[in-house]
Amino acid sequence: MSYGAGPRRKLDVYGPRRRDDTPLPVVVFFYGGAWNSGSRTHYGFAARALAAMGYMVVVPDYRLVPEIEYPAFLKDCAAAVAWVSDHIAAYGGDPGRLVLAGHSAGAYNAACLALDPRWLGPELRNAIVGLIGLSGPYDFYPFDGPISQRVFGKADNPRQTQPINHVGPDAVPMLLVSGGRDRLVLPRNSVNLSAALQAFGVPATLRLYPRLGHAGILFCLSLPLRWMAPVLKDCRAFLAEVTNPGMGPGDPTAPEHRAAAARQ
To answer: CB of 60 within 8 A of CB of 10?
Structure first.
């Protein structure tokens, strides 16, 4: 489906095959790739893992550097969330229960949309009930690496590019997961954001897995690699808590759920 003009403004919708007419909470998942690479078609494994737990899952593409510059990719991500709000009910999703999620650069995108009011209007922000950030960069100014310098170095106000600088008491609960061997996005990004949220009394769940690297956190969502760390179980518990307290979906490791997710 298209949420805007051009080949990079498309998205895929996933959902569990076995469901009734009850509208399901929605996870909007933004993939990473240093803001200069990536395709939604490569992340079906993550979408199916989340959908099998009883959620509608949307994976958008967005325009990349150097075709565009910051903050155009955030505007694309915001447009994708607006599409979800307007259309997901037709697929069985509940537009009033949105969770933003992402890995690496995608986690940055999700955090910006959730924390910085420049990107989503009040109604859309109120529909967001939580955020899952996997190996995300949230606190990396001053820019000291080639990727951050290239993408954010020309920003008019570089401090405003940092999700951590937009934390306030109205922030949504977050699950922040990072690997101790991550040398691309240091774990301190998740540690610092978690501390900033907690300082405002916002629930923040921090999970650090010392043996995992940057990509390993994401790959733990895939069926063959779930043994590496309970990242999927972390997501399951968090999603159940923020979308429907006390009434979370069934065990994602059960065979009937593993086979349930279908690309729409």
So the answer is: yes
